Amino acid sequence: MKIGIFGGAFNPPHLTHINIALTAINQLSLDKLLVVPTGDPPHKSCNVDKFARLKMAQIAFENLSDKAEVFDYEVNKADKSYTVETLGEIKRLYPDAQLYLIIGGDSLKNFGKWYRPNDIAAMCTLVVADRLRKTSVRTLARIERDYNAKTVRLDLPADKISSTEIRLRYQFKKDNLQFVPEAVDRFVLQNKLYSEYSATALKVKEYLTPERYSHTFYVVKRGLELADFKEQNKVFTACILHDVAKYTKQDGYCKYNFVKPDDMPNSVVHAFLGAEVARRDFNVTDTEILDAIKYHATAKPDMNRLEKILYIADKTEETRGFATSYLLKGSLDTKFKKCLKHAYEYCLEMHGDDVYGLSKQAVEYYCPEITKQHKITTDTQNTNGEYMKNESKTVINETVNNICKFLSEKSALNIKIVEIKGMTDIADHFVICSGRSAPQVKAMFDYMEEQMEKLGKVALRKEGMSEGRWIAVDYGDVIVHIFHKDTREIYALDSLWDNGQNVTAYED
User: Fold this and answer.
1) What is the domain range of residue 291?
2) pTM score above 0.85
3) Is residue 182 in a domain?
4) pLDDT the model gives residue 220
């Protein structure tokens, strides 16, 4: 008898969970699939009662297949749940069964941190379900070698659906039927699960434009991804309120007893004023949360974890696109320093030496080497005192040239090639261009994709097609950014690396 064990918080269960379950049943020829909702997991806290999660799992899985059933062993345990103990109980119930433990690729990487991993590997075959990205062959080989484990990879594509984002979407009153079974959605709404911040979210919406409200959603999402489970409440509150003063007009400052210092740039006023808005309008009294809001735009010396988390989340929320993915590698402190450096270089690029004093102090405190070594030079002066643009030595390969050619044929504006090989591992080149309108941006993308496919080049990943403000297309060694002209000015990707020294203008 072959039994699959699919454990998880299922908080809530979503369509990818369903796909994993069906794929496991079919690919492994399982006689039974036991879906095991966690009770009290030792490594994290669940914000929903375990019996509510058990009910959602039953709703999601028990009508899925006659081979799937929900196993409530961990939910009914009085103490913490460990996988090795659950496997032992299943072995007791089915002594002759072959066990297949289904785990995510990220969990596999941390398998050595599990409780008694060698015993787990001895009791079952590890079945890997890739989520955001494909688990490397090297990781599988390491687990097999270190724990004498047997591994199998499920044949299903990686995807981005996550319970974290779904819970957040419920908090922001977004529709979730594209992510969860209809019956689960109905249960969540009827029982008002994932709604403790919904009133705050609706109130915040009144303070922001739709675009800024969307940004806030993704800042909260990134913040929760960076936080430990004990920090979740403070991180959620700080992130959702960080921009509430973004559109407060100057004649409204007096309502919050706020006086703008003469040396404070308008671009950072909303952060300091935001702390007062959070205090007065949202009844926030926690000084850690208020300080995180206050310094999220400038940073400062000696920041605590909450302040760093909000600063990073604001700079790296996913709608900023590929350009910031390199900032998210390393520890929290490493991420923070990368973001601080990136922001400082951007300010220097846009404003010269006119960087707010508090931001300079933060850079001097965390990255003193930058202020000593950094020097912005976008133009060079010739012997006649005239300025001429730097000559780029970017080597244009065939893929880059074809992309530029196709974009040019659809009247793309200001096509630039950025050589980033050796500066980041996300690609060798960026191709950046602009369109005058969202329809033109979409038309440029459609034409380029069609022509590239004729050459046998299929995009590995593409984002932003629906809105047409910023479409990013990943061709492996080349990432294409097609901007609406107004959006391009905001992100300034042309000068993100090497201060623009590695940029070449495309000429047809």
Assistant:
1) 197-368
2) no
3) no
4) 98
Could you tell me if residue 475 is inside a domain?
yes
Chain-centroid distance, C-alpha 33? 31
Handedness of CA 108, 109, 112, 115 (dihedral sign): negative
The answer to whether the CB of 508 falls within 8 A of the CB of 405 is yes
So what's the pLDDT on residue 161?
A: 85
Say how many domains are in the chain: 3
Q: CATH number, domain at 124? A: 3.40.50.620
Query: Helix-strand-coil percent breakdown of the chain, rounded to 5?
Result: 50, 15, 35
Of the residues 117, 139, 161, the one at which a domain ends: 161
Residue 276 placed within a domain: yes
Higher pLDDT, 223 or 63: 223
Task: Extract the tokens encoding 150.
Answer: 């047997």
Q: What is the sign, positive or negative, of the torsion defined by CA atoms of 160, 163, 166, 168?
A: negative
How many whole angstroms from its chain centre is CA 257?
36
Pair 323, 285 in one domain: yes
Domain match, 408 and 499 both: yes
> Collapsing DSSP states into helix, strand and coil, what is residue 430?
strand
Structure tokens at 74: 């961990």
Beta bridge partners of 419: 429
SS3 assignment, position 433: strand
- Residue 143 domain flag: yes
Parallel, antiparallel, or unpaired: how do β-strands 503-505 and 413-419 relate?
antiparallel
Q: What is the DSSP secondary-structure string of 252-263?
A: GGGGGT----TT
